[in-house]
Amino acid sequence: MTTFRRGEVVLVRVPEGAGVITGLRPAVVLHPSLAADPGVSILPLIPAESAGPLSIKVERSSFESARMGLVSTLALDPDVSLDIPRALVARRIGRCPYELLNEVMRRRRSPLSSATRDAEEQLPEPIRVGKHSTRSDEDHTNPGTVPASDRDPLPEEPVAATRLAEDPTHAEVAEAEEMPRPRAMPEREDFSNRFPVECARYTCMRTPAPITIDGDLTKPVWRAAPVSERFADMVTGKPAWFDTRVRLLWDDQYLYFGFTAEETDVWGTLTERDSAIYEENDLEIFIAAQDAYYEFEISACNVIYEVFWIWKDVHQPGGPFWGRPEFNPATQRTMSLEGVGGHLHPRGSRWGFLDWDCPGLLHAVKVDGTLNQRNDTDHGWSAEIAIPWTSLEALADGRALPPKPGDTWRIDCSRFQKIDEYGETLDPCAGWTWSQHGHYDSHIPEVFPYVTFTDEMVEPVEPESSDLED
Question: How does pLDDT run across 284-297, given as a tens digit for each residue?
Fold first, then answer.
């Protein structure tokens, strides 16, 4: 269960056709006049007669036909809490003034219930909204994304009144009178000039044979692959204290990545898929298209974390991803992101689909030392990843899969480091990238390196020793 107290607004899943959610004292009244695709209703809570917890209970079988509802707890008594099953909560919007809900109702010309008007008279002074965070999770320590399975997936995101209408689940609520659907897609603005950094360029060669994914980068094919420059501080461009590099290869089935990461103490504590590995040490891949991008992270424990991101300005009726069940923010577990580390992207916000998994993905790690043996000195670790071309269909933007020689994609690789060279814990983590970003934000597609594919084959080089030499 997720607990909410007075002063919050939360987006919940509501069974289609339900007029009242049972299990509350008192009942929560829906307003079907606010329904819009994917369906939004305002659910104001009335002050309880006595202190104690309230609970929402809805059968899981109803989720398939669920729509969305906004629950306002601003009318709750201070000593009363609301418990909502985590599976029902789509997103915690945060603390916002009660007037915000009234404004939404007003624009839809739909009055609040008499019970709610009575409750409104008992409200304290409006709650002031602070400056909203640049991402919707509670910590700003890393440009990675929200933790998944083992943490509350619904971090607080304070919002201003103008932001309620940004979300595709909310936009129709505020604008249905003025903007009929389907909408014409907005012209894409080029924000490259906002990020005056020199992006790396890389030529990705073909491998003559499929690569066995076992984490070992001493293979002859990897020794022959072009190697990136040493990763540098993502903000300043200064060299990182540990050497980190990546190599890319491809064939008709896969896009291959081979990372080498120098590290004197290889460690990791998280073992479940989609854990918050960005809070420890990880290697990351970002693959961008015009309107979306894929984020992949891997730790030295071979634990991975994935998110598929879609820009909100195009994720609406008529957009390239609209109507695909796996990208429906009304039914999928999501987060909202405007930027990281104090940086706001000029394009605005995007949806992160937390449960999207790259089909057919292969990955492995090899440690040159002893994992989680903290009293010895290690040399580092390597990671090997194979991403099927078929899984990148949503990012192809009409390009051939596999790519044709000469095709160019925007692909970034990075590393986040929790421990410095002296063994001290860093907060936030150090962020190192292939190309300088100029901001502590790994979610800027405009600065991703240009990767151009060639049909030239690498000629495998047999190593003289077991050590991989750059």
Answer: 999 999 999 999 99
**How are strands ordered across the β-sheet holding 2-4?**
2-4, 80-84, 52-55
CA distances from 126 to 28, 97, 100, 101, 181 (A): 22, 6, 10, 12, 34
Cα–Cα distances in angstroms (integers) from residue 99 to residues 74, 105, 130, 248, in the given order: 10, 10, 15, 53
CATH number attached to the domain at 194-457: 2.60.40.1190
In this structure, the strands spanning 334-337 and 339-340 are unpaired
Alpha-carbon gap, residue 336 to 383, rounded angstroms: 29
HEC string for 9-77: EEEEEEECCCCEECCCCCCEECCHHHCCCCCEEEEECCCCCCCEEEECCCCHHHHHHEEEEEEECCCCC
Beta bridge pairs of residue 307: 295
Which structure tokens are listed for 461? Answer: 């080089």
CA distance 442 to 340: 8
Pick the more confident residue, 47 or 279.
279
Per-residue pLDDT tens over the stretch 171-211: 333 333 333 344 556 677 888 888 989 999 999 999 999 99
Q: How far is CA 334 from CA 158, 296, 355, 368, in A?
A: 16, 16, 8, 36
How far CA 237 is from CA of 197, 306, 347, 379, 395, in Å, comes to 10, 26, 24, 24, 28
Closest CA to 12 of 97, 60, 71: 71
Contact (Cβ atoms closer than 8 angstroms) between residue 139 and residue 274: no
Please, what sign has the CA dihedral across residues 125, 130, 132, 138? negative
Residue type, 54: L
Contact in structure between 40 and 32 (CB atoms under 8 Å): no
Helices within 259-339 (DSSP H only):
none
Torsion of CA 117, 119, 125, 128, to 10 degrees: -80
Q: Which H or E run includes 222?
A: helix 220-224
Q: Is 17 left (phi over 0), alpha (psi -120 to 50) or beta?
A: left
The pTM for the full model equals: 0.64
User: What is the token pair recorded at 238?
Assistant: 């200064």
| pLDDT at 324 (0 to 100) | 94
Domain spans, the chain: 2-129, 194-457
